[in-house]
Amino acid sequence: MSLERLQKALDFQAFYEQKVAQAADYIKERLSGLKPAFGVVLGSGLGELAGSIEGAVTIPYSDIPNFPMTTVPGHEGTMFIGTLEGVPVVGMKGRKHFYEVADGPLNTGMLLTVFPVHVLASLGVENYFVTNASGGLNPNYKVGDVMIITSHINHMPNPLLGRHHDFKRVGSQDQVWRFQPMNGAYDKELTSLLRDAGFSHDSHVHEGTYMAVTGPTYEAEAEAIAFRDGFKADAVGMSTTPEVIIARNRGMKAVGFSCITNVVTEDGINATSHEEVKAVLESSEVKNRLTSIVRKFFRSYQEENS
């Protein structure tokens, strides 16, 4: 490892709160008085949902100070600020995965992974809506189905490991907690709204437990069987849980769903590729289903909070 790379990692860690604040201040200047109620992260292939954000101001991630760039196909790397069915939102088209930066020294990889969530919290955003593409472990799931996340199993490095940061919780001046409870991680009221939003697609909408692994490998047969039969997970993916841990630690409410892009067979075979996953997400049937559910969710949220 070069001394220059090590010094950059040291600086990133030492001034992490300031770097988050710089990114938040840059975005704040472009809000034009809008107070976003939700941060919405649009996972692999789900970027089409950005088209539902009305009056959007777009900001490339590359323009935001210190903001992590995306490198995975299907993750464009653009922020959208506007309204979704009347609800002010910050939409993020693409995310940084831990597997992209896991070789970063001194825990910088995980700090980069959750950096956008810290920025949203520093903007005062109270709710975090997360989406992802995942593999279906539950034998009742089919390709193109939606799984509302009711709980998760984090099989990735915990983003709260290491130095206790001096961030404040949303809506208060309290410092973030060192020991973060994760029961009820996915807000019951928001999850109920999401469940209702999927009612018209009932045969394709489920509720279940999401398991997060580092990737970028897809699961071997024994791993898939262990996750399904041992851990009782319903879907498996390579993101989300570190983001939700930070969202909850910063005082945000979380809600979200997985789009099932491939199904693991009973004997554990997960014969898929990134190209096949993208192809599922690019189908008009799946796009329409996801967009319909998200729009209905925000329409109901607006009606309840107007």
Kindly describe this structure.
This protein is an alpha/beta fold. The chain is 33% helix and 22% strand. The chain has ten helices and nine strands. It has helices spanning 3-14, 16-28, 98-101, 108-113, 115-122, 188-197, 221-230, 241-249, 274-281, 284-305, and strands spanning 38-42, 54-60, 78-84, 87-93, 127-136, 146-154, 205-212, 235-237, 253-263. The longest helix is centred in the C-terminal third of the chain and has 22 residues, at 284-305. The protein is globular and about 50 Å long. It starts with a helix and ends with a helix. The mean pLDDT is 92.
Question: Between the first and last Cα atoms, what is the distance in angstroms?
Answer: 54 Å
CATH superfamily: Nucleoside phosphorylase domain
- Work out the strand percent: 15-25%
Level-1 CATH class name = Alpha Beta
Largest sheet features = 5 strands, mixed, barrel
CATH architecture: 3-Layer(aba) Sandwich
General shape: globular
Number of helices: 10
Q: Which class do the helix and strand fractions yield? A: alpha/beta
Poorly predicted parts: none
User: Any idea of the CATH topology?
Assistant: Rossmann fold
The tally of strands reads 9
Give the H and E element order: HHEEEEHHHEEHEHEHEHH
Question: What strand line-up does the widest sheet have?
Answer: 5-8-7-6-9
What is the alpha-carbon Rg in Å? 18 Å
Helix content: 25-40%
Name the average pLDDT.
92
**What is the domain tally?**
1
